[in-house]
Write a sequence for this structure.
């Protein structure tokens, strides 16, 4: 297996950035389909070679956050000739919602399905922002293959979600971009030009032969 790493880094995002896909409430209207969040690529290879990825990151203190502010790990699939806006992807990280930081996971096969889980009581403080370590790993068992997403707490891996469709067509020439991302879908009231800056460290991507 091979491993790729990056040093400690930051990703800023302006308002109006997101990775999200949702059908319209109005018949015939255009769906919401956004894929413009800033990213930093951690590795890119054929999907069949992917084994595991992990990254730690922190958002600013909650007093500086607005609804849907987010950052974390992104897996984006690529096929020759396919537009980025039509691709399959998975993002998982911290998302600020209902005045709380959560672990948010969105899996997009055709449309984006969102789930949230508690980040834990000691996730942040008045002066320090919410912090998390996320890991995603290939799993092969007697029922087939999938991707498991975990929240890392010390030496514990807390399972968040199993994704079954991602490796279904890995025998084809499908590539996966593994990236860190930051997104600020909505402008902060009174500070519309203010950026969201997410800090990242201890990233690791492991590929199998």
């Amino acid at each position: 297996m091979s491993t790729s790493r990056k040093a400690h880094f930051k990703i800023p995002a302006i308002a109006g950035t997101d990775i999200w896909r949702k059908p319209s409430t109005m018949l015939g209207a255009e769906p919401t389909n956004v894929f413009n969040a800033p990213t930093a690529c951690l590795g890119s290879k054929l999907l069949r070679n992917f084994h595991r990825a992990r990254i730690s990151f922190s958002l600013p203190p909650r007093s500086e956050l607005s609804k849907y502010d987010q950052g974390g790990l992104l897996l984006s699939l690529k096929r020759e000739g396919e537009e980025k806006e039509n691709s399959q992807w998975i993002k998982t990280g911290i998302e600020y919602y209902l005045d709380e930081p959560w672990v948010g996971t969105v899996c997009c096969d055709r449309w984006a399905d969102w789930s949230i889980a508690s980040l834990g009581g000691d996730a942040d403080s008045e002066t320090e922002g919410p912090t998390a370590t996320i890991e995603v790993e290939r799993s092969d068992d007697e029922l087939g293959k999938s991707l498991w997403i975990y929240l890392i707490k010390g030496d514990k891996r807390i399972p968040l979600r199993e994704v079954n469709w991602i490796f279904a067509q890995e025998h084809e020439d499908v590539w996966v971009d593994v990236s860190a991302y930051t997104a600020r879908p909505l402008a902060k009231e009174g500070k519309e030009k203010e950026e969201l800056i997410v800090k990242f460290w201890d990233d690791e991507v492991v590929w199998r032969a």
Summary: The chain has a mean pLDDT of 93.
